[in-house]
Amino acid sequence: MYDDLKKEMLEACLKMKEYKLVSLAGGNVAVRVEDNKFLVTPSAIEYDKMTYEDIVLIDENCKVLEGNRKPSSDSSAIVYIFQHKPEVNAVIHTHQPYATAIGMVQDKLPACMVTLIDACQGDVVVAPWTPSSDIGMGKLCVEYGNDARAVIMKRHGVIAYGPSLSDAIFSAVYLEEGAKTYVLAKLLGDVTELPKEEVARELSGMDNYGQ
Predict the structure, then answer these.
(1) 44-77 pLDDT per residue, tens
(2) Of 19, 154, 13, whose CA–CA distance to 90 is shortest?
(3) Whole-Å CA distances, 83 to 39, 120, 124, 133, 138
(4) 3-state secondary structure (DSSP) of residue 4
(5) Beta bridge partners of 125
(6) What is the largest distance, in Å, between two alpha-carbon atoms of the chain?
(7) How many Å apart are CA 108 and CA 102, to the nearest integer?
(8) Using CA atoms, how far apart are residues 83 and 121, in angstroms rounded to an integer?
(9) Dist. CA 75–CA 32, nearest whole Å
(10) How far is CA 166 from the centre of its chain?
């Protein structure tokens, strides 16, 4: 069941690795398929070795409904996000280094460049540290996410999400590009923040983006 979607998820996993957002088996990908049913990548299987059949279907209690693998250890946090963000249909978790580094020294990555604004919809806030595999990751993501499409988890990584899997990947990839650019700019001098009205103006232009 959901074979095409599972294949799309596996492609997303490999894309995360391609863009150096994860290494080996780090992070995870999840998609809502219907109310209280979610596809989640398996725990601790390297993406190069994963097949789409390894992806499992779970319910709201993280019980496996279909599949022979143990689901991601972050499943309780993932389910919490889905339950409290009804507009979100895909969640990815990465360990991308530049965004994670910013989260160790700042409280947010400001919406300071167009790709970051377009992908993440505004400032990306840093949520307090919580242990991995804890539902607290999901709770903090919901609490600190505001209207953005990503949250930086302090000393851990990033949770990015969106209405679709492609939206979630879009957010994570351009968040890392924005974080890298921000770090380079900080080495050269102070980085000013864009006025909120300019951020809103950039976002309004997204209505004409795409085919």
Answers:
(1) 999 999 999 999 999 999 999 999 999 999 999 9
(2) 13
(3) 14, 20, 21, 17, 10
(4) helix
(5) 108
(6) 53
(7) 8
(8) 21
(9) 12
(10) 11
- How far apart (Å, rounded) are the C-alpha atoms in residues 9 and 41? 8
Confidence check: pLDDT of 211 > 80: no
Higher-confidence position of 197 and 180: 180
- Residue 22: closest CA among 43, 4, 47: 47
Residue type, position 43, single letter: S
Bridge partners for 40 per DSSP: 30, 56
Render pLDDT for 100-132 as a digit per residue (tens, 0 to 9): 999 999 999 999 999 999 999 999 999 999 998
Residue 111: partners with Cβ closer than 8 Å, 6 or more residues away = 117, 120, 122, 123, 124, 193, 194, 199
Express as a percent the part of the chain with pLDDT over 90.
86
- DSSP secondary structure letters along 138-188: HHHHHHH-TTSSEEEETTTEEEEEESSHHHHHHHHHHHHHHHHHHHHHHHH
Helices 165-188, 3-18: crossing angle, 10 deg rounding: 10
Are the CB atoms for 67 and 94 separated by under 8 Å? no
Token duo for residue 2: 């959901």
**Confidence (pTM):** 0.93
Q: State which amino acid sits at residue 189.
A: G
Total count of residues recorded for the chain: 211
From residue 28, alpha-carbon distances to 25, 71, 77, 178 in Å are 8, 10, 11, 21
